[in-house]
Amino acid sequence: MTGATEVDAGADAPAGRPSQRTVAGLVAVPLLLVLWLAAALLPVPFVTYEPGLTLDVLASDDGRERIQVQGARTYRTDGELRMTTVYVTQPRARVNLFSAMGAWLDDERAVYPYDAVYDEDETAEETRRESSVQMVSSQDAATAAALRELGYDVTPVVEVLNVTEGLPAEGRLQVRDVIEAVDGQEISSAEQVGQVVRAAGAGTPVEFEVRRDGRERTVTVEPEATEDGPLVGILPGPGYRFPFQVDVEVPDSIGGPSAGLMFSLAIYDTLTPGSLTGGRVVAGTGTVDAQGDVGPIGGIAQKIPAARDAGAGLFLVPPDNCAEALRAPRGDVRLVRAETMHDARLAIEAWVEDPDAELPACTEEG
């Protein structure tokens, strides 16, 4: 009888020949290995964020207090005011697919498109330099905010925020030199400095009258011809003249402006009797300007878990970061909306007095 025959795909191949299944397996395994290797080695255009270290600004480093004050009485107390950081993939670093996927699946990490974080041609050195400038500026603004909170007068000035290696100002001008005059012209804005240098031209000595460590001095620098015109190699920017000297000492590896709020609170605590934190651990983040207004930052979803792991009971949040902060894994950490440095101080004092006190709370709207 004739009928249809069912073909067994797994039937033995003729003697001496490998089966189709065997051939497919022999081809698929190397291809799979190549794909896995490519995923492991080939970079993808993403940047990862993960919780970084937290640093108690009230503590000491190698026996030296992080908040240094000269010319005013200080009060060293217990408790902690912790600034928070984020580990971020550096420009042009290679992030593979596995790393990106791991960060995406982890609720304490994050992944962002590369061009949302860095410019296409940005280098690690440029990022480091910008971060260093932001740190200098944030410390000065934090000092101004803290001293104004204490009733001191603060005078705006123009100061050196960065000195570029390899250009004429290196070794002659220093970061935080207050620029009072250039070639006899009194300086009231950062733009003026560049204008005077360009007017002098390359090869013509320029005299900078600066105040450094409380003393006046004159420094002569000869501008160098560059593709951007005559330069001495400094970045002038806003600074402040204070009634006494305040320095915040943190590792050079930490940069950016986001610790401004915590710096201002630590300076305030150092200059006032008693413990602002009541011996407890308070963490937070946020830029701060000289008037004490708190601004938004990046990476708050990674900073809150880091603060939680450091034992913080309270975390200060810039209003614009509140919605994101509410979604961060925080455990028992209480989030407090900090619109100004003054608000943050009052909230800490109320919390120390009564841990269940009603405090400014974050909402999805801010």
Summarize the structure.
This protein is of the alpha+beta class and 366 residues long.
Q: How would you describe what is shown here?
A:
The structure is a single chain. With 366 residues, the chain is α+β, with helices and mostly antiparallel strands. It folds into 2 domains: 45-152 and 245-366, 2-Layer Sandwich (Ribosomal Protein S5, domain 2), CATH 3.30.230; 155-241, Pdz3 Domain. The protein has 9 helices and 20 strands. It has helices at residues 20-41, 97-105, 114-117, 124-149, 190-200, 260-270, 300-309, 322-326, 341-353; strands at 46-56, 60-61, 64-65, 67-70, 80-88, 110-113, 155-163, 178-182, 185-186, 206-212, 215-221, 224-226, 229-231, 234-241, 245-248, 281-284, 287-288, 294-295, 314-317, 334-337. It has a 6-stranded mixed β-sheet with strand order 6-1-5-16-19-20. A hairpin with a 2-residue loop joins strand 10 (206-212) and strand 11. The longest helix has 26 residues, at 124-149. The protein is flat, with a radius of gyration of 28 Å. The chain crosses the membrane at residues 23-46. GO terms for molecular function: ATP binding; ATP-dependent peptidase activity; serine-type endopeptidase activity. This is PDZ domain-containing protein. It comes from Nocardioides perillae. Keywords: Membrane, Transmembrane, Transmembrane helix.
